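Please produce the structure of this protein holding biotin.
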Amino acid sequence: MIGHAIIRVEETASTNDLAREFAGRVDADGIVVLAGRQTNGKGRLGRSWFSPPDTGIYMSVIIKRRLNYPYPFLICPAVSLAVAETIEYFSDLEPRIKWPNDIVVNSKKIGGILVERNNDVLIAGIGINLNVDPCVFPDEIKDKATSLMAESGRNWDKEEFLKKLSLALEDVLSTEEEEILDRLIARSFTLGKIVKVSDGKNVFQGKAEGFESDGSLLLRTADGKMINIKSGEIG
Ligand code: BTN
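Below is the modeled complex.
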C-alpha cells in the first residue's frame, strides 16, 4: 500500500534523493518520504522546485511493484492524474494535466511530478503548492504558478490531502493503462490546442491530437504529418 510507512523530516535537500536511501528496504514499495521543506528541491529538466516551509507538499513515493503498464513512462502522467483527482475530490476546482506532468488549475501550475529511476525502483516525486501564498513565488515563476489556497480561497488540510492522495495513487497504480489514458484525456489541458513542444533537441509546433498508449503525445504539424513525442516540454 502506498504510504504503509511514511518517513517525515522537517527539512531535506530533496525528498527524491532521500527516498533513494530507503529503496533497498524489503518493504520499500509504497514508502512515502515527506518533508516540511526542501533546500534543493528538483524539478524536471534540471530546474529547481520552489519549496517554502510547511505550506507545500514535498513528497516522494518509492514504487517497486510490477506495474500494470507495459510502459514505465506512463507512470508520470498517472501520478499527475492521482493528484488531479485528489484536488477534485476536495473542491470544485477543475485541475487539468498539461502534458506530460504539470497539474494546472485555471491555467496556472499548482504541482509537478518528477519520476526518477534507480535500477528496478521508481521514485515518484510530487510537489504541490497547497497553502503557498502566491506573493512568495520567485519572479521567474510568479506569472505561471498558483496554489490551491489561492485558487479556492481557503486553507487546505495537508494530512487529509495526503491520505486521499495515497489512496488515489494506489488506485492509478493498479488500474489498466487504457483506463488511465481515458481518465487523462478527460482532464487534459493540452489536447486540442496548438502547442510548441521541445523534446530537448528540436521544437515542434502543431495541434495536440492524442496520446499513444505509452503516454507519448501525438502532434499534427501544419503539413499534416503526425509526430509522436515521447517526452518533452510544452512552451
Ligand atoms: C516539475 O514540475 O518540474 C517537477 C517538480 C517535482 C517536485 C517534487 S517536490 C518532491 C520531490 N523532490 C524533489 O526534489 N522534487 C520532487
